[in-house]
Amino acid sequence: QKNKFSVGDVIEVMKPDGRNLSATVEQMKDEKGQSMDCCPHPKQMISLKLSQPVDCYDILRIHK
User: Fold this and answer.
1) What is the pTM of this model?
2) What is the CA radius of gyration of the chain?
3) Which of 11, 19, 54, 60 has the fewest Cβ atoms surrounding its Cβ within 10 A?
4) In the prediction, which pLDDT does 31 show?
5) What secondary structure does DSSP assign to the chain, as a single string?
6) Which pLDDT does position 43 carry in this prediction?
7) What is the layout of strands, in order, in the sheet containing 46-50?
8) Cβ contact 7:38 at 8 Å
9) Is the pLDDT of residue 24 over 90?
10) CA distance to 11, 21, 39, per residue, from 17 (Å)
């Protein structure tokens, strides 16, 4: 990730075929599996649970 976002934020999912979908961040964990409320540091490794499934090569960006 590049920019700060938090649990509850709406993320835009940009598909390789040109479609754009919205998904809500439902859960976030750091690389050790610890729950987090937000990811404040650039290039931080995180795992997300989103309200919509994502596929390999999808691009995620904060929807503001």
Assistant:
1) 0.85
2) 11
3) 19
4) 92
5) --S-EETT-EEEEE-TTS-EEEEEEEEEEETTS-B-SEE-STT--EEEEESS---TT-EEEE--
6) 87
7) 46-50, 20-30, 10-14, 59-62
8) yes
9) yes
10) 18, 12, 28
